[in-house]
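PROTEIN DESIGN WORKSHEET
SECTION A - STRUCTURE
LENGTH: 289
TOKENS:
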């Protein structure tokens, strides 16, 4: 049996990091602070919003269908929000936190009013982190969590549902759905017959997506995963632009130019950007002639 501990694990997030900027991938997925031995994480308001909404909805998926809405969903969201309140969520003032929390409450209200597939039976993959050997010969494992798997009894199949908290549409070239399709196909025995996105910030209904071809998806993802493994072996992670929006914020963390706010349950050291204060101009900076 191959060793899962020495394998390179890849996910939609880590692959996206690598494709955007190899240096960003390194700082997010490989680098550990020599002082703590922990990986680093940059928290932002948009990330905090997504985390709180997803955590609240994920709590429903482990319950039997009849019990999911017995407890007010807004109450569950409020508990999740406490974990990202203040600086823990990258909020530098109460006004910005209020705006983001209000957006989250609107999303929760939308789900509550349009429960749709969330009141139907759901498939729960038994693995804490769904994963499978993308290539055992190459030592590559694909992993990831799927937001919701609706069970369709009429066809004994599965409907992949992904909750979107961003204001923007998912990139058409995104590998998220191909990766999720592969994961669900390999981590449970039922056929995947549907996939949808739910843009919670603006829509009451799900947006159907075309299921990507499994073999084509595996081929393209394996190709990228091999590039990631090679970069790790060579320890070669270079930003092609010599610094970009994806890697520079993490470079600031390494250089001590970010504020440490704590360590999360996954043992990541969490940082936020240090607000740029208004520049104070002294009277000596100019002269009247």
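SECTION B - SEQUENCE
RESIDUE ASSIGNMENT:
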């Amino acid at each position: 049996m191959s060793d899962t501990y020495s394998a390179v694990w890849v996910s939609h997030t880590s692959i996206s990091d690598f494709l955007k900027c190899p240096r960003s991938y390194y700082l997010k997925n490989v680098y550990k602070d020599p002082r703590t031995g922990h990986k680093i994480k940059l928290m932002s308001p948009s990330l905090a919003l997504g985390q709180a909404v997803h955590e609240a909805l994920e709590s429903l998926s482990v319950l039997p269908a009849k019990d999911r809405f017995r407890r007010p969903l807004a109450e569950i969201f409020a508990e999740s929000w406490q974990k990202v309140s203040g600086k823990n969520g990258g909020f530098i003032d109460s006004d910005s936190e209020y705006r983001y929390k209000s957006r989250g409450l609107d999303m929760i209200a939308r789900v509550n009013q349009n429960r749709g597939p969330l009141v139907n039976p759901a498939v729960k993959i038994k693995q804490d982190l769904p994963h499978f050997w993308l290539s055992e010969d190459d030592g590559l494992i694909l992993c990831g969590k799927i937001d919701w798997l609706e069970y369709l009894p009429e066809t004994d199949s599965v409907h992949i549902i992904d909750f979107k908290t961003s204001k923007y549409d998912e990139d058409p070239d995104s590998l998220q759905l191909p990766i999720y399709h592969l994961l669900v196909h390999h981590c449970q025995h039922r056929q995947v017959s549907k996939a949808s996105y739910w843009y919670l910030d603006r829509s009451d209904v799900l947006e159907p997506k075309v299921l990507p071809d499994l073999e084509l998806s595996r081929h393209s993802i394996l190709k990228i995963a091999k590039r990631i493994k090679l970069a790790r072996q060579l320890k070669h992670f270079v930003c092609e632009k010599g610094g970009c929006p994806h890697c520079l914020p993490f470079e600031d963390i390494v250089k001590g130019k970010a504020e440490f706010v704590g360590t999360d349950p996954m043992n990541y050291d969490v940082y936020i950007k240090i607000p740029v204060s208004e520049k104070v101009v002294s009277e000596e900076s100019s002269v009247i002639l």
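SECTION C - NOTES
The helical segments are 12-20, 22-29, 45-61, 73-82, 94-113, 176-187, 214-234, 248-254.
DSSP finds eight helices and ten strands in the chain.
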